[in-house]
Structure formats: structure tokens, C-alpha cells
Amino acid sequence: MDSVTSTTGGSRRGPYSEAPSTSRTARALREVIRAASDTRGALARRLGIGVTDAAAIDHLAASPDPLGPVELGNRLGIRSASATALVDRLVRAGHLARTPHPQDRRRVALRVTDDGYDEVSAALRPMLAGIEQAVDRLTPEQAAATATFLQEVAEVMREYVVTAQEEPPDLARQRQPRGIRTADE
Predict the structure, then answer these.
(1) DSSP category for residue 67
(2) CA–CA separation, 72 vs 66, rounded Å?
(3) What is the pTM (predicted TM-score) of this model?
(4) Which of 8, 142, 166 is closest to 77 using CA atoms?
(5) Average pLDDT for 143-166
């Protein structure tokens, strides 16, 4: 049964030890999330670029809307000057190209080049082949249920991202002028 709680003994502490869900499925999904983070580092090493550079390529390849350097920097959580340096580096390496923004010709949009896609695809090929092998072991019904579940989880995760505060509460409190109390104090 999936809702059985963890049987590990002791008082193991960590970021997920107090998670509301202790189902086997939720624990397995959290392991996938941790592995995904490690995968980005492995992709960066295979491409011979930094982890932030790999994250930039991923954001640009996955975005349905054109992104400029400022939007990319915001998604990566880096300052404008750092985003410009990152973009310059990826353009020089042939991974990205600057193009006129389709809705605003005064702006620049970034796109992953064909060579960039080819390099990333080649670097990801062994992992993607393994994932396809795992999918092939599912029945059609299991595959459909899994796809639906993963799409729902992705939506929950996107909502979590969208509803996150712009800055941590401690930092926001530090920015408050002295002598002014907030409603949560």
C-alpha cells in the first residue's frame, strides 16, 4: 500500500523529514527531484560549461515565450551584469544566439542554436534512452496514469514557484525602517 509511513528507525532529520506526505510515491518523487538537480550538474560537466550556463540553456529551450537577458537573469536568480556575462559566454560558445524580439523590436530575444540543441541532445541521450526503457516496461494504462500524475505534479510545482515570496521573510524584515511594526510582528 502506498500510504505506509517510513519504516526507517531513529530521528532522521532533513529537508523532507517533516514533509506532510510520507507515501511511497511522494518519497519516490522527492528522490526524482533530488536526482534532477544532480542531473543538471552532470549535464554541465558533459558540455564543459557551468551549472548556471546549463540552467540558462534549459530555461531558454523550455520557455514557450521568448526570453531576453533580463528575464533569463530573473529566472536564474542572478543580477543583470551576471546575466549579460553568461549570455555573452554562451553566444561565444555557439550555444545561444541573440535575435530581435518578435513582439518588441527594441528588445533582444535569446534562442538556443541548432548546434546548442544538438550538443545538449547528445549529452542527454544516455539518460533519455534509460527513461524510455523504463517507460517501455509500463503497460499502456500505467504509462497514461504516470503521465497524468507527472503533469499534475509539475503544475503543483509551478504553482509553488509562482506563489513564492520575492525575498525571504528575514530579509524583508531587515529592509523595514526601524520603529515600524508589520502586521505579523
Answers:
(1) B
(2) 10
(3) 0.69
(4) 166
(5) 91
